[in-house]
Amino acid sequence: IVNLVNLFNLDSVVLGGAMRSILPFMLERAKATVTARALAQPGAEVAIKVAGREDDAVYGAACLVLDAIMNHPITYVRSFAPSPNNHG
After folding, report:
1. When comparing pLDDT for 74 and 1, which is higher?
2. For residue 20, what are the contacts with CB-CB under 8 A and spacing of at least 6?
3. pTM of the model
4. What's the CA gap between 79 and 68, in Å, rounded?
5. Which uninterrupted H or E stretch holds 48?
6. Which of 36, 60, 70, 79 is 20 to 30 A from residue 86's alpha carbon, by CA?
7. Pairing state of beta strands 47-50 and 12-15?
8. Nearest Cα to 46, choosing from 63, 26, 32?
């Protein structure tokens, strides 16, 4: 988690999946580790949460897509435009 926070300058991390049932017991330790080992700026700002749904991976993937569309709509629309080299 620390490496991902440092590498991508994350503002939040949502944990879930097969180990979701035990994550509430590990959450405080994960937060303390990130605070102690991450770079100062992303480490101080990151929020670490446990997903609240069994099918959280689907919702997380959907959120990533919607986030990309909302934050960079022109890039998303251009991805559907025909290539200038493609005349078909």
Report:
1. 1
2. 50, 51, 54, 56
3. 0.57
4. 12
5. strand 47-50
6. 70
7. parallel
8. 32
Alpha helices for 1-88 (secondary structure H) = 2-8, 23-37, 40-45, 56-71, 73-78
pLDDT tens readout for residues 29-42: 999 999 999 999 88
Q: Which two tokens stand for residue 46?
A: 């990151």
- Taking alpha carbons only, the member of 66, 60, 48, 53 closest to residue 12 is 48
Give residues with Cβ within 8 angstroms of 28, minimum separation 6: none
Cα separation, 88 vs 77, whole angstroms: 19
User: What's the token pair of residue 33?
Assistant: 């580790």
The SS3 call for residue 47 is strand
